[in-house]
Amino acid sequence: MLFFDADLLGPWEAQRSNWQYVSGMCTAIGRIQNGRIVGGVLYERDNGESVWMHAAGEGAWINKRLLEVAFDYPFNQLKVKYVIAMVEHGNAQVRKLIERLGFECKAHLPGTSPNGGFMFYQLAASTWQENRNGRRRKHTQTT
């Protein structure tokens, strides 16, 4: 079951992602399974052109419905052109996932985190739409 409560998901996700949640600054889409939170997505810094996305989960938390809603919200509800994600360089599993979703790495800042620095990814609304329609764009994997 999906839920839309940032004050419920925010502290849960912040604890797992090593960042600080501030009430009233985010919107959220979470997933509950067997009565407990298993994952979700938080959005912040909506400036009309782009929005930042944070995601965290446990086990098999991502499903097709959550993916659809997670990208419908920024692109069709907020009407932004881009979703921005920041990932630690050493988190190869998440980097591989978001690259498969169509995100492109725009910058790597070595030394900005203990795990190899932060990498900034961007997903264009047009890329998401192409991927949804089965015309997956070829991407290059980052190192």
Radius of gyration, CA atoms, in whole angstroms: 15 Å
Could you estimate the helical fraction of the residues in percent? 25-40%
- Order of SSEs: EHEEEHEHEEH
What's the overall geometry? globular
Number of domains: 2
The count of helical stretches stands at 4
Total strand count, please? 7
Work out the strand percent.
25-35%
Indicate the low-confidence ranges by residue numbers: none
Mean pLDDT: 91
Query: Alpha-carbon distance between the termini?
Result: 36 Å
Give a verbal description of the structure.
It is globular, with a radius of gyration of 15 Å. A hairpin with an 8-residue loop joins strand 6 (about 105-110) and strand 7 (about 120-125). It has a 7-stranded mixed sheet, with helices on both faces. The chain has 4 helices and 7 strands, in the order βαβββαβαββα. The longest helix has 14 residues, at about 65-75. The chain folds into 2 domains: about 1-80, no CATH class; about 80-143, no CATH class. The protein has helices spanning about 5-15, 65-75, 90-100, 125-130; strands spanning about 1-5, 25-35, 35-45, 50-55, 80-90, 105-110, 120-125. About 30% of the residues lie in helices and about 30% in strands. By secondary structure, the protein is α+β, with helices and mostly antiparallel strands.
